[in-house]
Amino acid sequence: MDKITPCIAIHGGAGTIEKSTLTPELHDMYTHALNQCIQAGYRILQQGGSAIDAVTTSVTALENEPLFNAGKGAVFTHSGGHEMDASIMDGSNLMAGGVTCVRNIKNPIMLARTVMEKSGFVLLSSDGAEEFAKLNNIAFEPNEYFDTDTRYQQWQKIKDSEFMQLDHNVNLKKGTVGAVALDQYGNLAAATSTGGMTNKRYNRIGDTPIVGIGTYANNNTCAISCTGHGEYFIRSVVAYDVSCLMEYKGLSLQEACELVVNDKLVKLGGEGGLIAIDHLGNIELPFNSEGMYRASQKVGGERFIAIH
């Protein structure tokens, strides 16, 4: 058996990221943040750690970075609060955990992992998820921790309307975050976290917390983390579709990603992208939008960071 080269990829959202509005200063801020967040997970793999630990670590770092719409810096809901979603999946055993509509959880990805490992369930929501978090000593933060001036100004512009806005649409540069990894043992893992849509109402839930749609990992095929307009990703069952095309039709990772992101989603009207790693260590970072904050690296190889 050939030696496995561990690798990792992360994203910070996809959408209409216009070069004309991304100043050199902002560009440097985002690339620095991506570099720091992928490095956190990369170190785990470099030291012989597991894929599940690597994706947890990188997504936690992304949640702690206010430039992105997850954890600290999550967008405002219609009522002026923050509702966050996250999910994680272990490709070695198909165990998964997710949380949706949670408030005041510092790192929703940590709660999602705890759901996977300790609850016996897959998806918990709102008050119940928060009760479970308290029982498991998950860190909480006050509302102000999650607030940023940029997010507040975005919300102010549309808070008196019925309009909901994707955080990564025109002139909004932040997005859902995620990570996928392959470790030295051949295990795959994926994790995704988000603050959802600005001005969202009715406990709206996107693709992020739903296993098989926003997040999926299977050692036989690939690990996927998605970002984009969640309703279209849900209707397209995006993450699992990529895996299925590989498993049942024999497509390569590149072929499966191309078909789903740049054909199926486009025909439906869905904007966004995904990051993917297969069981052979191939990495794909496709998107059908103007840009996607992304980074990838194989252990011992060069680090790739890009926006457009």
Notes on the structure:
With 308 residues, the chain is α+β, with helices and mostly antiparallel strands. It has one domain (7-306): 4-Layer Sandwich (Glutamine Phosphoribosylpyrophosphate, subunit 1, domain 1), CATH 3.60.20.30. The chain contains 9 helices and 12 strands. It has helices at residues 24-46, 51-63, 108-119, 126-135, 143-146, 149-158, 230-236, 238-249, 253-268, and strands at 7-15, 84-90, 95-102, 123-125, 177-182, 188-194, 215-217, 222-228, 272-278, 283-284, 291-298, 304-306. The protein has an 8-stranded mixed beta sheet with strand order 4-3-2-6-5-1-11-12. A hairpin with a 5-residue loop joins strand 11 and strand 12 (304-306). The chain starts with 6 loop residues before the first strand and ends with a strand.
Comma- or semicolon-separated keywords:
4-stranded antiparallel β-sheet, alpha+beta, 35% helix, 308 residues, Glutamine Phosphoribosylpyrophosphate, subunit 1, domain 1, single chain, globular, 8-stranded mixed β-sheet
Percent helix: 25-40%
One letter per element, helices H and strands E, the order comes to EHHEEHEHHHEEEEHHHEEEE
Shape: globular
Low-confidence segments, given as residue ranges, are: 167-174
Q: Order of strands side by side in the largest beta sheet? A: 4-3-2-6-5-1-11-12
Overall CATH architecture = 4-Layer Sandwich
How many discrete structural domains? Answer: 1
Number of helices, where a helix is a run of at least 4 consecutive DSSP H or I residues: 9
User: What portion of the residues fall into strands of 2 or more residues?
Assistant: 15-25%
- Kindly identify the CATH topology: Glutamine Phosphoribosylpyrophosphate, subunit 1, domain 1
